From TrEMBL:
GO biological process: one example: glutathione metabolic process
Protein name as annotated: FAD/NAD(P)-binding domain-containing protein
UniProt cross-references to Gene3D superfamilies, sorted A to Z: FAD/NAD(P)-binding domain
InterPro entries: FAD/NAD-bd_sf (IPR036188), FAD/NAD-binding_dom (IPR023753), GSHR/TRXR-like (IPR046952), Pyr_OxRdtase_I_AS (IPR012999)
Family: Belongs to the class-I pyridine nucleotide-disulfide oxidoreductase family.
PROSITE patterns linked: PYRIDINE_REDOX_1 (PS00076)
Cofactors: FAD
GO CC list: cytosol; mitochondrion
An annotated Gene Ontology molecular function: glutathione-disulfide reductase (NADPH) activity
Provenance organism: Microthlaspi erraticum
């Protein structure tokens, strides 16, 4: 049986005249904001459900992952690449401080990408455990609002299941977009830049924000 939403941290007793729901709160999107809202509500006594698209480093309307932009295709993976890029300069600079490197030091791009992926998966699993520990029910699939208090989740196998909720929170975040300029179809976004199969020999970065500067620093630092 569903329950009424909390009032001042206490769960009111439902009467026969009041509507009942599967969840007090259902969250669409399990990024940093959605996970925080779900855990906070559950820890205060609410029955909470949350849904998120299947994991993939590059997001689309069909794929995403628990953890959202920051964990999967933002802060965390970029910082790992930034950290990896710093070693080249440090190794070269070490020669000025008495260190002699008598063997060739080779850089393997795919090994760094694997390190990045391993860390992302570790953090994604931590997010899942945090939700489970807070008794939040996690559903993997695409969530859609189909009624005033109803969410439909299309699961990986294509089946659709509907849930009712007193409150529905949309926490889907956003995706990187290409500007509508000539030749934009030849460019990539920061999502793809974090998962390139081959390290680029040359690159042009369009923009001068912090994301652009970070990628310029990463690629330059790696040669």
């Amino acid at each position: 049986m569903g329950r009424k939403m909390l009032a001042d941290g206490e769960l009111d007793k439902a009467t026969s005249e009041e509507a009942t729901y599967d969840f007090d709160l259902f969250v669409i999107g399990a990024g940093s904001g959605g996970v925080r809202a779900a855990r906070f509500s559950a820890n205060n006594g609410a029955k909470v459900g949350i849904c998120e698209l299947p994991f993939h480093p590059i997001s689309s309307e069909e794929i995403g992952g628990v953890g959202g932009t920051c964990v999967i295709r933002g802060c965390v993976p970029k910082k790992i690449l930034v950290y990896g890029a710093t070693y080249g300069g440090e190794l070269e600079d070490a020669r000025n401080y008495g260190w002699e490197i008598n063997e060739n030091v080779d850089f393997t791009w795919k090994k760094l990408l694997q390190k990045k992926t391993d860390e992302i998966l570790r953090l994604t699993n931590i997010y899942k455990r945090l939700l489970a520990n807070a008794a939040v029910k996690l559903y993997e699939g695409e969530g859609r609002i189909v009624g005033p208090n109803e969410v439909e989740v299309r699961q990986i196998d294509g089946t659709k299941i509907s849930y009712t909720a007193k409150h529905i929170l949309i926490a889907t975040g956003s995706r990187a977009q290409k500007p509508n300029i000539p030749g934009h179809e030849l460019a990539i976004t920061s999502d793809e830049a974090l998962s390139l199969e081959e390290f680029p020999k040359r690159a042009v970065v369009l923009g001068g924000g912090y994301i652009a500067v970070e990628f310029a620093s990463i690629w330059r630092g790696m040669g």
